[in-house]
Amino acid sequence: MTRIRFTLLCIPGVLLLAPRVAMAGDPAAADALFKRAVPEFEAGHFGTACPMLEESHRLDPKAGTLFTLAECHAQWGKIASALVEYRSYIRQVDEMAPDKRDKHEPRYRRAKEQAAAIEPHVPELSLALPADAPAGTKVIRNGNEVSRPSLGLGVPVDPGEHEIVVEVPGREAVKRTVRVERGEKARVDLVLPAAKPASTNDIRGRVGTSSAEKHEPTPPGASGGRTGIYVTGGIGIAGIAVGAITGGLAMSKTSFIDEHCPNKKCLDKEGKETADNAQTLAMVSTIGFGVGIAGAATATILALVSGGADEKKGQAPRVQAAVIGVDSAGAVLGAKGVF
Asked: What is the domain extent for residue 45?
């Protein structure tokens, strides 16, 4: 008997130590929230009242709380949310027994009037991805992922600003803010994040080694001017390679810059840095092509006028032209060989 009494005395102690967590189906917490929200709502503090009412309805779904929440959202300007809540309230009242339905009559009529009044003013937002969006691309609006079937459809949204994030595996996410006004039907064609540019080491591996040129030995007595031809020709090849590579890198940043720097005015630091890098690459590309064309032209002229003896008889001049390094700040090129 003593053991049973001890157990019963311990149970309340355990319950007192356990924290109270509000869960769905908690009428007491829902009622407390509702009572706190009503004065805030009546005072016009909708930013405080509406979240309280929303949580109260989640904890204890009641038709009266839902109607008050719809009223709060409507006066706060969140008319898309209010329209959904008014319609849900109307459906719930329609399903009630006649005696219970009578108690909601004034609110029922107002809900119908309000729904009809605000429906024409609810804006719609359509988000569209490019057709070539890779698998795994995600679109997130206000923290919630937009399902693939919903993309391209006009979805009712509350007026105001909406944060849109586009995520592609292996790329840096792109964020933008879209503002939608009352009654507007807006379509946003989303831009995919730019692919990360190749690293300097990758470019060296692809260009530096593959551009080396080997020449067959020149018979003794060949013109010594052939040395200049090989040198200037090698520099011309390297210059054109630099121009092509840096030009391609600059072009790859175009879509990112167009999004972050509309009308050549950058909206954020990331857009300005990307625009500056692209401008530097474009300048390096222009110089590279200029050097390449000049080298090729010089080599052609030397080939036409060369005619002396080789500086090293029995050994043909050999030259290697290579791109030594390319990155967002510029490029280094050079030539070496035996003459």
From this structure: 22-121
Please report whether residue 282 resides in a domain: yes
What is the distance between the alpha carbons of residues 73 and 61, in angstroms, rounded to a whole number? Answer: 17
Looking at the structure, do residues 113 and 130 belong to the same domain, yes or no? no
Distance CA 179, CA 186 (A): 9
Q: Scanning the structure block, which residue is given the tokens 């929303």?
A: 54
Question: 186 CB contacts (<8 Å, ≥6 apart)?
Answer: 123, 124, 125, 126, 178, 180
pLDDT tens-digit readout, 83-117: 999 999 999 999 999 989 999 999 999 999 999 99
Could you tell me the CATH number of the domain that includes residue 117?
Answer: 1.25.40.10
Q: Is 296 helix (H, G, I), strand (E, B) or coil?
A: helix
Q: Is residue 5 part of a domain?
A: no
- Cβ atoms of residues 73 and 47 within 8 Å: no
* Residues 270, 229 share a domain: yes
The model's pTM is 0.51
The pLDDT tens digits of the residues spanning 278-327 come to 778 777 768 866 776 876 777 677 666 665 444 444 444 454 544 445 45
- Which residues on adjacent β-strands are paired with residue 188? 127
How far are the Cα atoms of 12, 90, 96, 186 from residue 102, in angstroms, in the given order?
44, 13, 9, 41
First to last CA, the chain: 110
Q: Are 194 and 255 in contact (CB under 8 A)?
A: yes
Beta bridge partner(s), residue 321: 335
User: Does 35 share its domain with 87?
Assistant: yes
Phi-psi domain of 131 (left: phi exceeds 0; alpha: psi -120 through 50; beta: other): alpha
DSSP annotation of 221 reads: T
